[in-house]
C-alpha cells in the first residue's frame, strides 16, 4: 500500500526541506531572541544546528556535541514555558496555552569554544508554526495513511490553523478597538479638563489681581 | 502500482523542494545591527520580505549583500519586498541596521524564500499529474483546496503583521496622548500661577523704587 522506498524518500525530502534555514552568528555570552505571535493551542517546532569556525580549513564545521545551546521560551505573561539545554544540534517543541507574543531565546552554555572560534558561533535556525510544524511523513508512517488520506489530513490541519488564527485575530481586533476607544476618551476628557482649568485659572488670576491692586491702592 | 506511486513521489518531491521559506521576527536594539545569512546556489530565485512592526518611526536600514556586492540598499524603510536571482552561488547576507536610532528599538519581521527554477515546478494543467490514471475528483479537489488554503494563510500572515503594526501605533498614541495631556495640564497651572507672581513682583518693585 505504501511502498517503503517512497516513505523513506518522502521523509528525506521533508526532512531536507526543513533543515534549510537562515543562519546568524552568536557571541559567547550573547542572547538572541525571536518573537512568534501565535494563537493559543498552537504547536511550534524549532530546529537548530550550530557550527564552529575551524582555522585549519578556514570554514565552519559542525561543532562538537559539547557545545550546547540553551533554549528558553516565554509566554505573553512572561512565564517560562520551556527552558532546556540542548547539544550542538537540537529540536525543541512547545505548544502555546495563551495567545500572544512568545519569545524564544537562544544562548550558548559554554565558554569553551570562544577560545578558538573568534568568539562567534554560527547558528542555523528554523522555526515552524502550526500546520507547518507537523511532520506528515511521520504521521503517514505511523497511521498507514494513503496519499489521499494524508492530503485530507493536511487540509484539516490547515483549516484548523486558519480558524485559530481568525479567533486570535478577533481577540486582537478587540484589543485594538479598546485602545482606540480609550485614546478617544482620553482626548475628550483631557481637553474638557484642560478647558476647565484654563477658565478657572483665568478667573482666579483676575480676582486675585483685582484684590491685589485694590490692596495696593493702584486702582 | 509501484510505477505511478514513484512518479507521484518524484513530483511531490520537487514540489516540496521547490520553495523553502524561513520566517523570523526579532527585536533590533537601538544602535544595533543584525545579519542573517543563507547559502544560495547560483540561479536560485530569492525573495526577501520584511516589515517593521513596532518602534520609533517604523523604519530600519536594510542591506543585502551577495559576495560583498550590494544587491539591495534601503534607508529608513518601513516594509518591502525584493526579488533577485543569485548569480555567484555564495552566501547571501541580509542585514538590518538601526544605527540611526539612539533610543528606540525596532521589531522586525522577515521572510526569506528560495526557489530553484531548475527543479521543475509541478506541471501546469490539471492538478495531480502524478496519479493521472487514479486522479479522481477527490484528489484534484484536495490539491486545489490545499493551494488555496496556503494562499489564505499567506494573506492572514500579512494581515496579522499589518494589524500588529497598527496596534503598536495605537498603543503608543494612547500613551502619548496621556503623557502630553498631563504635561500640558501641569504647564497650564504653572503658567497661570507664574503670571500672577510675575505681575505682582512688577508692582511691588515699582513701589519700592518709588519709595526710595
From TrEMBL, chain A:
PROSITE patterns hit by this protein: GOLD (PS50866)
Leader sequence residues: 1-21
Annotated GOLD domain residues: 31-129
Membrane topology designation: Single-pass type I membrane protein
Superkingdom, natural source: Eukaryota
Keywords: Membrane, Signal, Transmembrane, Transmembrane helix
Broad class of the protein's primary localization: endoplasmic reticulum
GO cellular component terms, semicolon-separated: COPII-coated ER to Golgi transport vesicle; endoplasmic reticulum; endoplasmic reticulum membrane; endoplasmic reticulum-Golgi intermediate compartment; Golgi apparatus
Subcellular localization: Endoplasmic reticulum membrane; Membrane
Annotated transmembrane regions: 187-206
Example GO BP: endoplasmic reticulum to Golgi vesicle-mediated transport
Family: Belongs to the EMP24/GP25L family.
Name the UniProt record assigns to this protein: Transmembrane emp24 domain-containing protein 9
Organism this protein belongs to: Branchiostoma floridae (Florida lancelet)
TrEMBL record, chain B:
Transmembrane segments: 179-203
Cleavable signal peptide: 1-21
UniProtKB keywords: Membrane, Signal, Transmembrane, Transmembrane helix
InterPro entries attached to this UniProt entry: Emp24-like, GOLD_dom, GOLD_dom_sf
Record-linked Pfam families: EMP24_GP25L (PF01105)
Compartments it resides in: Endoplasmic reticulum membrane; Endoplasmic reticulum-Golgi intermediate compartment membrane; Golgi apparatus, cis-Golgi network membrane; Membrane
Membrane topology: Single-pass type I membrane protein
GO BP terms, alphabetized: endoplasmic reticulum to Golgi vesicle-mediated transport; Golgi organization; intracellular protein transport
GO terms under cellular component: COPII-coated ER to Golgi transport vesicle; endoplasmic reticulum; endoplasmic reticulum membrane; endoplasmic reticulum-Golgi intermediate compartment; endoplasmic reticulum-Golgi intermediate compartment membrane; Golgi apparatus
Segments forming domain GOLD: 33-116
SUPFAM superfamilies: Supernatant protein factor (SPF), C-terminal domain
Family recorded in the similarity comment: Belongs to the EMP24/GP25L family.
Descriptive protein name: Transmembrane emp24 domain-containing protein 7-like isoform X1
